[in-house]
Design goal:
Chain lengths: 489, 489
């Protein structure tokens, strides 16, 4: 017999994963004996009021673990192979609970899934030339030798000098190179957050940002993001009532909404952060991808205390496959972060650090960026035109001036995760809103990452979504109209 | 006034750092007011019974933090600049306590400090050719695009196939690529250890291994390492009394001792691990560097349960500056580790993964390894001959058959950390034993990493150490002989 299954809608953990965890525990603890038959996916979905794909996803994980075996037509049986396949350890009991990645969304013909540049835009010839210069330079042996936790010294000097010239780096600041922005978030978590500390983040937000802090046991509080970025009134209330230790803000072209904070709101945000003595982390990995409108200074530039911790990366402006980002922060902070980094991975890969330095110094990054801005502008324009045309009556959507994504919220409540398989059958994929949930669920929203697709594909893809979601909206409206209001009891 | 300073000899934290932490806290908490004069280094050293360099190292960190200012001839004064330099945050209070790296030992003319290959042995032409093949291949755009947490698929397949052919990878095993072996240790800590869990490690051991687990709050227990690797009797007692969750073993050419576990002892170790149901992690990053004697199977190869988690890396056999290692382990484990990795750094740098794959497939790694083995054999031989000649009467040393280091223990008790500055003045550097301390202190020991030096430099360097430590041994023996035995009370 299955144990009593209880699924929380408010959890960060998706429901298929909650279901998997609970059945897994029951099998491993022998509450369900070997050989027992599990309910069919359709049957269990009915019992629990779940979509059948949710139950299937949980069963797939159990089959993968060797805990059940599925036989077509006969149902699924508990085999507990994971335990009995060797005389050794019970990994299911030994492993710490993980924070699973969002359910994998396979790329479709037209994929709005990943927030990344198109590889068709990569300047391969420039990259090859850069590599050749680096490996034939006199520093090649040095690059291949063991490095230092804070980063390859010539790159660090270059980034620090650039930050000073731009006005983001003060004399009291330093730079530490990280293995991409994701590691910067992890190192900040390790250096500045303890289990139980409150960390305020935007809601919705990129899962990697949320989970970098969640793995360390931080209590996450979401601050709503509107058209102009984070909602300052909600932020002020939250800072007062919750007194978070850390506030993480993506000031420009936030992921997933694409929203940017206007200059005057940035000044107000800085005053709030200072007043409440919260550590402000500015995630600025999209800031260089402005296609329209006026450039706004970073929070770090505007911060008169110099305390803001600024995160940057080459992943969005150059090549995501090379994992190089950096932190600009007061020297006390960079020093502790470099110390923590040593025990994480010794130092960031030096070949990529040297190649990206040369890519900058040779002016090739600037040329590439100019081409990215031209392509990005077209793609953003295509995405907004297509949304206006095809989603006009049924959804609201953000209007970014740069970055890689926009955020669509349907007017009638529905679950974009449930709609995904229908879209995929028609060759279109996106990331459902719930992946970005912090405090709110965002089930009726989805992220459209447009940067990887040419304008005509964007138009085609959004047209498909418009048709599917339009049908669903009409169906739901009809149901709502036909259902009598429930009695108030 | 300084607060009462209490330093522990048993702590993993070096004394200069303990002293720094306590004074820092007193300044930051205003227990010592701004403007107050601190005792001179010589004076405080006398009061606390410390070496003066220990106090100087602590003061240097405080000056670096802006907490005190040193004026020649006038002593050091509390300035608390770190707090008053801006109107903002007090980083000294906000930052989590770090685990500092071992006090930096500057490379000398003859440096036995780092356990790494000499860059003069790097096959730069082969490396350049390899890079060129990778960047001009049809997969270049793919390599530059966002990858997956478990690793670049062609490299993962290659490593898994190699592990299966060698008999280290079973059908139930999988491979996950890590950003070097240091990250493998970190990910294992995150996936299998919780704060307060007991982790058994070798004593002495490489600081990066110890600290990877210490940062997660594990309780570390050291198992003594002898000529034949870890002491099995001590291990058996410890497994019984302490019931650790994890046991981390470097089976071949352990760092720092160079000791290897013979085949029959490996079988006994596996039986012990299985009997006590401890998770066995085999760190095998030096195993390919055997210069003499017969190859011994890895624990993973001999393990009939298949549970051993095997760590490997390209850092020691190819290029330390490229951060690529890998884990071979049961699929349940690699899956959870890949999940944890996603929140640490998304994935390992793909340029280096692709370059190292090509370096293997082209046969260039095998050629390079053959040359490394020839050079390593000469260097190991030179190191052992020099130790026999110059340290014969005053120290015991290990006799490795491969790897990069040997371990020297002086017969008369002395502190090799205190002797270091004398050696450096004569152009020779090494890592003092205390850096490798777990349960025991190893103050009378030091690590000689010979792999980075040609035979004649090894001979010169060990000759200097022989002379200095010989003089100190004679001095200490004379003091001991002249001191009357204390009364037993």
């Amino acid at each position: 017999m299955l144990p009593h299954i209880q699924l929380s809608d408010l959890s960060d953990v998706p429901r298929y994963r909650q279901l998997y965890d609970q059945i897994r525990l029951a099998i491993v603890s022998k509450a369900i004996p070997d050989g027992e038959r599990l309910p069919a996916t359709r049957e269990l979905a009915g019992q629990l009021g779940l979509n059948r794909t949710t139950v299937s996803a949980a069963y797939d994980l159990l089959i993968n673990d060797g805990l059940i075996s599925g036989q077509v037509g006969r149902g699924s049986f508990v085999t507990n192979q994971a335990v009995s396949s060797n005389s050794g350890l019970n990994w299911q009991q030994l492993l710490n609970a993980g924070l699973p990645a969002p359910a994998f969304v396979a790329d479709s013909d037209i994929s709005f899934v990943a927030s990344r540049p198109s590889e068709l835009l990569f300047p391969l010839e420039d990259f090859r030339r850069t590599c050749q210069e680096v490996i034939s330079s006199g520093d090649a042996a040095n690059i291949l030798q063991l490095g230092t936790p804070a980063g390859y010294a010539p790159l660090r000097r270059y980034l620090l000098e650039a930050a000073r010239q731009e006005g983001t780096g003060r004399p009291t600041d330093d730079v530490v190179v990280t293995s991409g922005c994701q590691q910067a978030l992890d190192l900040i978590q390790r250096s500045l957050v303890s289990a139980g500390n409150i960390v305020a983040i935007e809601d919705p937000v990129y899962p990697g940002l949320k989970n970098a802090f969640a793995v360390g046991g931080a209590r996450l509080i979401g601050v709503p993001v509107g058209r102009d970025g984070v909602d300052l009134e909600a932020l002020a209330r939250m800072l007062k009532s919750e007194r978070p230790r850390l506030l993480v803000i993506t000031s420009s072209f936030q992921n997933p909404t694409g929203a940017s904070i206007p200059a005057n709101a940035r000044a107000a945000l800085l005053r709030l952060a200072q007043e409440h003595r919260v550590v402000l982390v500015e995630n600025d990995i999209y800031g260089d991808l402005r296609y329209e409108g006026e450039r706004v200074p970073t929070l770090k530039q505007m911060d008169t205390t110099g305390d803001t911790i600024l995160l940057r990366s080459f992943s969005k402006t150059a090549f995501p496959g090379l994992r190089v980002g950096w932190i600009v922060a007061p020297r006390e902070v960079t020093r502790r972060i470099a110390e923590a980094k040593q025990w994480c991975d010794l130092h960031t890969d030096q070949l990529s650090q040297a190649v990206l330095l040369r890519f900058c110094e040779s002016g090739r990054l600037a040329s590439h960026r100019a081409r990215m801005l031209t392509a990005g502008k077209e793609r953003l324009r295509a995405a907004m035109d297509a949304c206006t045309r095809h989603l006009g009556g049924i959804a609201a959507f953000t209007r970014p001036e740069g970055g890689m994504s926009l955020w669509v919220t349907f007017v009638v409540r529905m679950d974009t995760a449930d709609m995904l398989s229908r879209a995929q059958r028609e060759g279109v994929a996106y990331l459902p809103g719930r992946h970005f949930a912090v405090t709110k669920e965002h089930r009726s929203s989805l992220r459209l990452s447009f940067a990887g697709l040419p304008p005509d594909r964007i138009e085609q893809g959004v047209a498909v979504l418009g048709r599917l979601f339009g049908e669903e909206t009409r169906r739901l409206r009809a149901v709502l109209d036909s259902e009598p209001e429930p009695a108030v009891v």
